[in-house]
Amino acid sequence: MGSYLLGIDIGTSACKTALFHPGGGAVAVRECPYGVSYPQPGWAQQDPDDWWKAAVSGIRGVLEESGVRPADIAGIGVDGQSWAMVAIDKDGAVLWKNYSVTVKVMTVMARPLK
User: Fold this and answer.
1) pLDDT 10s per residue in the chain (114 long)?
2) Do residues 49 and 90 make contact, with C-beta atoms less than 8 angstroms apart?
3) pTM of this prediction?
4) Residues 48 and 92 sit within 8 Å (Cβ to Cβ)
5) Bridge partners (DSSP) listed for residue 20
6) What whole-number distance in Å separates Cα of residue 7 and Cα of residue 91?
7) Which of 4, 16, 55, 56 is deepest in the core (most CB within 10 A)?
C-alpha cells in the first residue's frame, strides 16, 4: 500500500497539484494556469475542459518529477473554486465571481414575503 498523499486544488486561475511524503513535506508541486473569460461586464466564465487538462497535467507532472508511482499514493484530496456550485452550459462554466444576475437577485429579494 502507498504512503504518499496527492493534493489537487482547482482554483480560479490555476490548478495547483502537490505530492506529499509520509512525513508531511512536499515532494513535488505543480501549478497549471488557465484563463478566465469576461464576455460582458460583471460576467466571469471558464471552460471546464481547461480544469481537467490542468489537473491531468499537474498530476502527471508531480509524478514524473518525484518518480513516485501511482500505486504509491495512499490518498487524494481535491478542492474546488470557492464554496459554491459551478453552473455549466454550452458556453462554459459560470464562476463564483460572476455578477451577471445581481440585478435579478436583488429584485427578487426586495419583494415582500406572502
Assistant:
1) 789 999 999 998 999 999 999 888 999 999 999 998 888 887 778 888 898 999 999 999 999 999 999 999 999 999 987 666 666 677 766 666 666 666 666 676 777 776
2) no
3) 0.76
4) yes
5) 5, 26
6) 29
7) 4
Residue 67 Ramachandran class (φ > 0 left, ψ -120 to 50 alpha, else beta) = left
For residues 22 and 59, give the distance between their C-alpha atoms in angstroms, rounded to a whole number: 18
Q: Which three cell numbers stand for residue 15?
A: 490548478
Residue count of the chain, please give it: 114
Rounded to the nearest 5 percent, the helix, strand and coil shares of the chain are 25, 35, 40
Residue corresponding to grid cell 456550485: 85
The enclosing H or E element of 71 equals none
What does the angle CA 93 – CA 98 – CA 101 come to, to the nearest 5 degrees?
Answer: 110
